[in-house]
Amino acid sequence: xxxxxxxxxxxxxxxxxxxxxxxxxxxxxxxxxxxxxxxxxxxxxxxxxxxxxxxxxxxxxxxxxxxxxxxxxxxxxxxxxxxxxxxxxxxxxxxxxxxxxxxxxxxxxxxxxxxxxxxxxxxxxxxxxxxxxxxxxxxxxxxxxxxxxxxxxxxxxxxxxxxxxxxxxxxxxxxxxxxxxxxxxxxxxxxxxxxxxxxxxxxxxxxxxxxxxxxxxxxxxxxxxxxxxxxxxxxxxxxxxxxxxxxxxxxxxxx
Amino acid sequence: xxxxxxxxxxxxxxxxxxxxxxxxxxxxxxxxxxxxxxxxxxxxxxxxxxxxxxxxxxxxxxxxxxxxxxxxxxxxxxxxxxxxxxxxxxxxxxxxxxxxxxxxxxxxxxxxxxxxxxxxxxxxxxxxxxxxxxxxxxxxxxxxxxxxxxxxxxxxxxxxxxxxxxxxxxxxxxxxxxxxxxxxxxxxxxxxxxxxxxxxxxxxxxxxxxxxxxxxxxxxxxxxxxxxxxxxxxxxxxxxxxxxxxxxxxxxxxxxxxxxxxxxxxxxxxxxxxxxxxxxxxxxxxxxxxxxxxxxxxxxxxxxxxxxxxxxxxxxxxxxxxxxxxxxxxxxxxxxxxx
Lengths: 255, 339
What we know:
The complex is a heterodimer.
Chain A: E1 4-13, E2 16-26, E3 31-35, H1 42-50, E4 57-62, E5 65-66, H2 72-78, E6 80-82, H3 95-101, H4 111-116, H5 119-138, H6 154-167, E7 172-176, H7 184-200, E8 204-208, H8 212-218, E9 221-226, E10 229-234, H9 236-241, H10 243-250
Parallel strand pairs in A: 3-8, 3-9, 6-7, 7-8
Antiparallel strand pairs in A: 1-2, 1-4, 4-5, 9-10
Helix pairs in contact in A: 3-6, 5-6
Chain B: H1 5-22, H2 28-53, H3 61-80, H4 96-122, H5 129-146, E1 157-158, H6 160-170, H7 175-196, H8 198-208, H9 210-215, H10 220-246, E2 248-249, H11 256-269, H12 274-290, H13 298-312, H14 323-326, H15 328-338
Antiparallel strand pairs in B: 1-2
Helix pairs in contact in B: 1-7, 2-7, 2-10, 2-11, 2-12, 3-4, 3-5, 3-10, 4-10, 7-8, 7-10, 8-10, 11-12
């Protein structure tokens, strides 16, 4: 059974068909790329996968369980975490608090534990703090742990956002244009980071990216979307030479 | 020592204020002002949970206060005196001394249930709906009370004085002062525990970015309802205390005016600052009392001062900081105590 499977996913915004018969199978351990021109429906596919929208047709399954009809917080609790195209951290909270709150699905205590400060509560909070601290350590963010996130430079914010998604202990990590707004040195660092977290946490990564350097270098398999439909998929080399992809998206000067 | 700060502060407050009152050192008028301060602290701190920490806008806090006030008053009068609907007193009035907190809690619980009923439909949608719905609820509660003869209708409801006075006869202590102090500390304790937990910090995440919160596994709808219930429950507690301090309540005490006062205290103190709420509630109560000689002109002066405040310090007295943030050494002291 595949880890994550999308079948014949179709979504309409009113009369506009944003996604048409999209299929995806992730067996686990891939680094899957999703590319395509602006407005092709890439982020819509991500939003459908996370439960932000309910698809008009089609099915999405994680480990064989259908995700249709679930609230986004339930989907994320089942093991799908994501980052956003324009960073969406909680800007008035510290880095540590950002990482803590993302573990709401792993809270081991209830309200009565909270108010009575029971052992369950103290242990639950302790576990959460430990996970966050370890994550900050691994991502080299320990120095900024108590900084309010709105005061951090953009590159660090990206890193914090990835860290926040990882503390949810996801099976599948969705990255929506992780390299947007980063300078070339930061992009190299980011590529290394993505490959490292994929190995370290045995994650399946699915990413949207416009920088071909990133996609072609780190993805094992790439899917190309245009007008909501898949026009090609294959290894980076296949995609680079695919006539339809060159016409629709890449243009003549391929990297 | 560090973890006992609050307990020590409470005992000190109880001993100093309670003792001074018991010995007759405090003028009854000042007693009243002190007790109203406590009630206002509860009101502003609990409303801050919704309007400050969570960033939603509720403007019918007095409605929930009314529920708490009437439920606890009717209960204490009918249980402990023969004037109530139940005929003879159900329990001996002597028992009021120990059963009074139960009565307050029942009032708070009733207000929390009222809060639940409001929260379920209003959090289906986002944005201004909550403001409109809570405004309507405030009016509905007031009208229902006005038209219910059983609780005195527009004339109001009384008899609580007897219960409170009787408590004083059984054990000669300033009972209401004591319960106001305990109620205020309880409120602050509940709110602080909540917002310092990872679960409670979810409401700050909702304020900052609700969609991100939902996608990062925060059950936003449930959390909002829980917060609304806690907040309205505490407003009910404030109502119960208020009713028993005065010994008389009427629907006119719980109008939109009262809700506005609570809102003013929240924004005056700073959204998302618990110590700000306490400071502003204390300051606002004092201000209103100091300006009492101005009579009606008070309601020109106070709003004018608010306008000035909003112009020159829109984030409120404390912003979103706490007192401990202003004194780094104090903060360091408590941080080492926690870990």
